[in-house]
Amino acid sequence: MTSFLLPMLLCCGCRNADRKELRSYEKGGKKISFLSGGEVPEEFKDYQSLSTNVQSSAYKFELLIKSENYWTPNPIRLFYGVGDDIIVEVNREEKEKESGYHYYKLDKSGTITDSLYHPLRGGLRSGFVGAYVVYLSSEEGYYYNTWPLNGDKTKKRIKILNQDLSWTTEKLEKTDHEISLDAKHIFYEAENQSGENGISWSLNKMFFFKGGIWQVLYRRQSFGADINDADKLRALRYDFFRTSNDRQPAEEENFELKFFEKTEWLSYGHAIGGGQAGFSTAGWSGTAYFNLPLNLDSLKIKVSDLIIEQEKADTGVIRYYRSHGSGENVSPFNLNYYTSRNLNYAIYSNDANHLYLVKKGE
User: Fold this and answer.
1) What percent of the chain clears pLDDT 90, i.e. is strictly above it?
2) pLDDT of 214-260, one tens digit each?
3) Burial 26-46 (b: 16+ CB within 10 A, else e)
4) Which of 146, 212, 285, 316 has the most CB atoms less than 10 A away?
C-alpha cells in the first residue's frame, strides 16, 4: 500500500506545482502576499542571485572588511556613530604583532573616512558613548577623545571627584542628585577593595558627561555592591548588525518574499539538537524571489534550493531552510542583510568573517 500511495502523492504534488497560488503571511503586523508555484512570471525573470561573484548593472558588491579571527562568533560589529556615520568594530587574530580592536568610520555613501585602533594591553577597556570614546585603563587611568565626532584622537583626562573619599554623605548625595538632573551620559563601574582587618569594600564609580567634560564620582560602599548590566559602559552602545554564521535576529530580517518557484517535492529532516530528537517531513524545494530594500529602491534577488515552511495556510509565520537534497537534514537560511533610508548602501555578510557593502550600479 505504501509503495502505491507514494507515487500518487508525488504526482499530485507535481500537478500542484503547475498551479500558482496567492499566499500571504504576517510580518511586523502587516499582511504580505506572494505567489507560489507555477511558471515564473515575466516580472521575476530579471532577478539575480545575491552573490559576491555576480556581475549586475543593478548593484555591485564591495568587500569592506575581512577578519582573520576565527574564534569569535561575531568578529565584525556595526553601530551608529554621530549623524549618519556608521562605525565598524573588528576583532583581529591574535597572531598579529599587537592584537586589539580596529574601528572604521563609514559615511553615508559607505566610504571609509577614518580609522582608530584600540590595543588590548594595560587592562585597557573602551566604550563608545555618543560623540566620545571613553577609555578605562588599569595603567593609564581614565580618559576620552572625540574621535566619533571630529576624528580627534587626543587624550583628554576624566576628572575624578572625591578621589580621597573624604566627602561627607550629604555632599555625595547632593552631587549625585545634581548629576542625575542634567548629565548627558551616565554609567557605573565598581571595583572591590581589600580593607583593613579583613573587611572588604567596594569602590563605586559614577562616570558622567556634564558641563562639556567627562568626570567620575568616587563613593565607598559595602563589599559586593552590584552594578546592573543596563547601567554599565557597554550598555550605552547598540550593535545593530553583527556578522555571523547564524541567522540574524528577527528585526534584521527585512527582505520580502515575492514569488516561490517549486522545483522538487522531497522528504527532508530537521536536526533540533540540544538533546531533542529530530524529525522528518516533506515539502517543496525551489527558488525564492525576494525584494531587498536599498535606500528608496530595492534589490531584486533569487535564492535557489530553499524550503519554505508556513505555520498556517494564510498569514502564518514563514521559516526558510536550505535544502541539501532528498533525505538530508535542512540547515537555516541566512540572509544577513541590513539597510536604512539614511544610507546609500546596504550591508551584507555571508559568514562571520566577511562584511560586504551592496551599492546600486552606476
Assistant:
1) 48
2) 999 999 988 777 889 999 999 999 999 998 877 665 545 678 899 99
3) ebeeeeeebbbbbeeeeeeee
4) 285
For β-strands 336-338 and 345-351, DSSP reports them as: antiparallel
Instruction: Specify whether the CB–CB gap between 59 and 361 falls below 8 A.
Output: yes
350: helix, coil or strand?
strand
C-alpha to C-alpha distance for 164 and 122, rounded to whole angstroms: 24
pLDDT at 244: 82
Q: Residue for cell digits 553615508?
A: 108
Question: If you search the block for the grid coordinates 508556513, which residue do you land on?
Answer: 310
Smallest CA-to-CA distance from 190 within 219, 156, 160, 168 is with: 219
- The amino acid sitting at 342 is N
Distance CA 65, CA 344 (A): 18
Beta bridge partners of 183: none
171 vs 166: CA distance, rounded Å: 10
At 4, is the pLDDT very low, low, confident or very high (cuts 50, 70, 90)?
very low
CB 202 within 8 A of CB 216: no
pTM higher than the cut 0.90: no
Residue 263 above 80 pLDDT?
A: yes
